[in-house]
Specification:
The complex is a heterodimer.
Chain A (H helix, E strand, L loop, with lengths): L11 E2 L11 E5 L5 H5 L6 H8 L4 H8 L6 H7 L3 H5 L11 H15 L13 E5 L3 H12 L3 E5 L8 H4 L8 H12 L4 E3 L7 H8 L3 E4 L5 E2 L12 E3 H9 L10 E5 L3 H12 L4 E5 L11 H9 L3 E3 L2 E7 L2 E9 L5 E10 L3 E4 L3 E2 L12 E2 L2 E2 L12 E3 L10 H19 L36 H6 L10 H8 L13 H5 L5 E5 L3 E4 L9 H5 L5 E5 L3
Parallel strand pairs in A: 3-4, 3-6, 4-5, 6-19, 8-15, 9-10, 9-15, 10-11
Antiparallel strand pairs in A: 2-22, 7-16, 12-13, 13-14, 17-18, 20-21
Helix pairs in contact in A: 2-3, 3-6, 4-6, 6-16, 7-14, 11-12
Chain B lengths: L49 H17 L3 E5 L3 H6 L4 E2 L4 E4 L5 H14 L5 E7 H7 L1 H9 L5 E6 L40 H7 L4 E6 L3 H12 L5 E6 L3 H4 L6 H11 L5 E4 L2 E5 L8 H5 L13 H21 L12
Parallel strand pairs in B: 1-3, 1-4, 4-5, 5-7, 6-7
Antiparallel strand pairs in B: 6-8, 8-9
Helix pairs in contact in B: 1-7, 3-5
Classes of the chains: A alpha/beta, B alpha/beta.
Chain lengths: ~550, ~350
Amino acid sequence: MNKPFAITLDPASSRLNHTGAWRVRRPIYVDRLSPCDHACPAGERPQAWLAHAEEGDYRAAWDELVRHNPIPAVMGRACYHPCETACNRGKLDAAVSIHAVERFLGDLAIREHWRLPNAGPETGKRVLVIGGGPSGLSAAYHLALAGHAVTLREAAPALGGMMRYGIPRYRLPRDVLDAEIARVVEMGVRVETGARVSDAARAKAEGGFDACFAAIGAHLANRVEIPAADATRILEATSLLHDVEDGRAAARIGRRVAVYGGGNTAIDAARTVKRLGAEEAWIVYRRTRAHMPAHDFEVREAMAEGVEMRWLSTVQRVEPGHIVVERMEIDTDGKARPTGKLETLDADTVVLAVGQNVDISAVQVPGVHIVDGVVAVNAQMMTGHSGLFAGGDMVPCERTIAVAVGHGEKAARNIDAWMRSTTCESAAEPEVAGFESLNPWYYGDADPAVQPTLDAVRRRTTFDEVHGGLDEEHALLEARRCLSCGHCFECDNCYGMCPDNAIVKLGPGRGFRIDLDYCKGCGICSSECPCGAIAMVDEDA
Amino acid sequence: MSAEQQVKFYQTGTFTVGNRLLDPSKRTVQASIDRRNALTSGHRACQGCGEALGARYVLDAAMRATGGRLVAVNATGCLEVFSTPYPESAWQVAWLHSLFGNAAAVASGVAAALRVKGSDVRVIAQGGDGGTMDIGFGCLSGMFERNDDVLYVCYDNEAYMNTGVQRSSATPAAARTSTTPALGDEPGNSFGTGKNLPALAMAHGIPYVATASVADLHDLEGKVERAMAIHGARYLHVHVPCPLGWGSDPARTIQIARLAVESGLFPLFEASCGEVVRATPIRRRAKVDEYLRLQTRFAHLFDGTPRSAEALARIQALADRNVSRFGLAPRETEHHSP
């Protein structure tokens, strides 16, 4: 009534006008699965712990890391990091050196004496774990977390399995291994070393265990028949590496050693004999470098240490003072075929590294099926024998530490569920945040941090660790190279770039909310989200 | 290198609006949870409007720079029409609208009145490219030559969008508008027409002239802050894509603005008293095709004819000339150690 001349309406805010009514698509915040998370056989969530590390909160990062993997300092050294192969950053400049940050966190935890979480409240259930390798240790850890009493039985004098008796010290120093094993044992795991189990079912029954997890690995070397005048000059790589750990190998090898095989064990054996003083070390492999199962970087490192490669060759026979090798060729089908051309190689010792088998004697119990020399398990990691679970190298899988650790956790969860007569439901995984879901423009350019490498002379003569770790400065930078694929990292792009102020910022760590009263559905937030954490979905008709 | 560009590491550095790893003083106004939102929700701009974004960016930054002691004078145009259909307004800042062509003159008057009253309130005038470069140019030139204490901001969407996408003197060569159809021997807007307003502003010798883009927020906010630290006539020319008039996907507004900068077609620079004093180097050089292809107003350039190829080459030459003239070539390396 008291309005100025020509003014008939009360002034009001445009907020009365709910422009959200225009919308035909709406943005939603999603958590897609980072490719590294998807790729990690150990079930780690690298993106999650890198997010803590990039803020400098290393303790939170380590805590997140050990939710799945109790041995990060080992893993950061010995894992072949499929996470980095999957890393989207590889399409920008170079993959985030996830293993180097993992190792930094693992080493920091050892230095700072960080402890694993306490064992869970006692459930009264008892579980026997057979085998103290990565799978058995992982299972023991996760079972202890769940509150079960764990007995860990190991045939060898010390825990570690292939981490101790297979991976040479120059890749995995034993003080690191010992420290991470001790931390699992500290949780209250009962350890029995030098205790070979000959019958898993009987051991479970006699010990009054509610369940048993067998993870005895694959330690039996494959044999190939090679005519030899002196059989003592033919060794097996696995026993060679085992003996080195026990300090017994130096006398047995000659001065010129041929390693027969093309896998990582062959590389380990060749690099080891070099360090033990062999003047010459050859790797004899029947196909070409491209076919070698061994990882390329290990082949390169071996060659840098003076290991020589004989591609397209097989060991035909061993004669006093030398061996006879036959040249191979690759036929049109890509198969290696003998040519009949013979050469001699001035080797006095042959080390066989042509694969390993499982000693199945301990699990030849009613109900257990052996297929192709390994133990068949169902989706819950249980064998055909009720209550007997198995994992690691003895079941069909890629034989790596990461797979073994993943099996340990998976088996532990299923054992826990089985003992409670339930099943362990694994939630459906969200879609993977592929490179096409990112807007990579926003990421700063940064070359990967490079781990220091021991000089070649010392690598030929000592078992000192070849690769050094990153210092804090570089580990932090490396963590900050993470693109956070599929997970909002609060860059504020959506909040800042909405022309309608329809995104509400909730504060640090709490993310954002979309105000659908005003969101017109333009999609700028989704397009400009660096990490693919906003999807556009059609409004329901 | 300007202060807002120094931090490029820390995952996304200063490329994103915010960054939780950055020192708060290096974050943008727009990243702040309590930013002013000078242009608030409920306005009637189209989906993905670059001008709505640009106006909020500029005024929020100016509100911070002046502690909220600010008056905005608006020319007629999209920005006025979509923000203030009587009796509602989206402005959360003292705001005044008069006519299409007189925003600079009104702002001069407001500034004079405030001076007489001894007030420390600062004045911004704003308009689109039509109201600024065509209709209001006489008033603007007067404001410049009198060195009135006003920051004039032009949100350049390269045509009269509100009235139906008619050509303005800011419409780029070859662009199709409703008055420059893609027909005949030289389809779209003619080459060799239009005017360069930042250069004309510089010719007045005023203390501050700058260009900015909605795709580079840190750069834009820095320029507003520096402009507000100076008294006298100042001019800021902000490039704002228009999904409606340009025929582009509303979701790509920022991307298109970024490509305009990275192709060299829209150079980012600052000038003081008639001299260019600083240019923002391009981060990753783009070809003009990448920019033009996303807009249907240039669709006729991609018909594969020799005539179109020649037109594209001419546009590329314009971009290349900007790059060499302002020294915009990407820096050799921007890799960082911690």
